[in-house]
Amino acid sequence: MKNSMKLSAIASAMALTLGLTACGGGGGTSSVAALDSTLPVSSGTITGFGSVYVNGVKFDTENASFDIEGSTGTQADLAIGMVVQVNGVINPDGVTGTATNIVFDDQLQGPVADFTPSADNLTATFTVLGVPVEIDSKTTYFDPDNGGITFDTIQNGDIVELSGLFRGDTLVADRIERKTETQVEFKGNITGLNNSQFTLRGISVDASTARLDDLPNGLVEGAYVEVEGAYDGTQIIATKVESEEFEYGDNNEFEMEGYVTNLNGSRFEMNGIVVDFSRAEMEPRRLQVANNLQVEVEGRFSNGVMIAEEIKMRGGDAEVSGFISRVDVANNLFEVEINGTVIVIHTGMETEFEDDYDRGIYSFRLADLGQNDFVEVEGYLNDDGSLFAVEVEVTSPDEIEVQSVVDAIAADKITVLGVDFSIDVNNTIFEGTSDNPLTQVEFENAIITGQTWVKVKDTNRDGTADKIELED
Question: Counting CB atoms within 10 angstroms of each CB, which of 20, 51, 362, 395 has the fewest?
Answer without folding.
Answer: 362
